[in-house]
Amino acid sequence: MFVTEQRYFRKGFKMRDEVQHLLDRDYRSEAVDRVRENGNVLSVDGLTIRLADEFGFCYGVDRAVDYAFQTREKFPDRRIFITGDMIHNASMNDRLREMGIEFLSTGFDGPTEEAFDRLSPEDVVLLPAFGAPIDWVEKLREKECVVVDTTCGSVLSVWKRVTRYAKKEFTSIIHGKYYHEETKATASQTLKDGGNGRYLIVRNLKETAYVTEFILGRMTAAELTEKLAHGMSPGFDPERDLQRVGVANQTTMLMSETLAVGEELRKAMAERYGEENISEHFELFDTICSATQDRQDALFELLEQPLDVMVVIGGYNSSNTNNLAIIADERVPKSYHIASGDCIEGGTIRHKPAHTPLDAREEVAETGWLPEGPVRIGLTAGASTPNSQIGLAIGRLLEARGLPPEAALR
User: Fold this and answer.
1) What is the pLDDT of residues 217-242, one digit of tens each?
2) How far is 48 from 50, CA to CA, in rounded Å?
3) Among 70, 105, 126, 47, which residue's Cα sits nearest to residue 307?
4) Which parts of 135-269 are beta strand (E)?
5) Distances in Å between the alpha carbon of 20 and those of 65, 68, 69, 234, 265?
6) Residues 185-223: pLDDT tens digits?
7) Distance between CA 190 and CA 158 in Å, rounded?
8) Closest Cα to residue 306, out of 37, 48, 21, 35?
């Protein structure tokens, strides 16, 4: 009897036990475990390091990494590809390359037609935690590849929301970065199944103000299009498409900003159409993922402690890590966003200044960054940062004060 091979997997291969030792080896940190056991505080010879209560790998990232390892175990003799970064963490993506997983693209641009042309039905393709735009998935289907989908559940929840908006003939206003993989994938959901959904991506409150100015008749459609064309769906007509709107977001944005974006749009709609008619013209549902919010809340709590220095660890192109860095920078004068633990080298720290774009590395080196005498350091990490990098940072901080890394284990 001929059995057709399954071509799409979303729930892994039930092989976690087989790959757990590899995950522990690559991503666990005994130093982090010890500091956690000590109430998230390490104090040695005048150096105090405080960890946030929530940091590092979230469930969605852990799941995606797990599935990638399982995929290599399941298909040891096949070519395995991934559409782009699995997560925004360089060490993680480098580890996948060491496992023989090839990347169809790097950065935010996505695969080219030539990259898709390389694929055959014998190949396995991973979809990253951010998800993938519908047209990418369709091309993989046409190539008859085996697809392993690691899209985060929180992202899927946003997709359901914008799909609902489209069915109700509401335009999805997406608070996010228009070039980010997740935002591209979310926007594409409004157009699936040949639908007539519409979307408009706004990056911040400044861009939201352009939209509200148009809604209130203070800006023309041509002026709005000139400013925000990069975030508009094909054929977008402001006069037609901004009469009924629903707000969604890239899951890793600052929740406070997403809520502010929604409130500005709600106020503009209420002023134009009347508060009594607001439900016919505006909807807002919180679609920030709980892990993103937990890490932001934990950082706010950590920042209530007296700190001399704040260090945030995570990929420079990681949206959730950049937002943590912005929060820290606004409250601790000496705040540093580092890509990995080895950015700390004695008296020098390599870091990315807060408020710089995700697509601009702009790493700078700073000497004399660590104050003399007793010092209190806060430490957190983005949702795509493994504990191994956090543990490395702890060890490097100890070495910067002339202490052995093993001091974290005492």
Assistant:
1) 999 999 999 999 999 999 999 999 99
2) 7
3) 47
4) 146-149, 171-175, 199-202, 245-249
5) 11, 12, 9, 45, 47
6) 999 999 986 667 999 999 999 999 999 999 999 999 999
7) 11
8) 48
pTM: 0.89
> What single-letter amino acid sits at 195?
G
DSSP assignments along 284-300, one per residue: E-----HHHHHHHHHHH
pLDDT tens per residue, range 236-285: 999 999 999 999 999 989 888 999 999 999 999 999 999 999 999 999 97
Structure tokens at 28: 């666990």
Closest CA to 72 of 101, 29, 43, 49: 101
- Domains, the chain, ordered by start: 16-58+291-409 (3.40.1010.20), 59-152 (3.40.50.11270), 154-288 (3.40.1010.20)
- Listed residue (381, 289, 272, 320) closest to 53, CA to CA: 381
Active site residue 239: no
Separation between Cα atoms, residue 253 and residue 289, nearest integer Å? 9
> DSSP assignment, residue 67?
H
Q: Which of 54, 181, 182, 257 is catalytic?
A: 182
Burial class (CB in 10 A: 0-12, 13-18, 19+), 227: middle
CA distance 345 to 367: 10
Query: Which runs of E-coded beta strand occur in 52-145?
Result: 80-82, 101-103, 124-127
Instruction: Please tell me whether residue 171 adopts helix, strand or coil conformation.
Output: strand
CA separation for the pair 152, 59 (Å, rounded) = 8
Measured distance CA(216)–CA(264) in Å, rounded = 12
d(CA 50, CA 376): 8
Strand order in the sheet with 335-338: 41-44, 47-51, 375-381, 309-313, 335-338
391-402, pLDDT tens digit by residue? 999 999 999 999
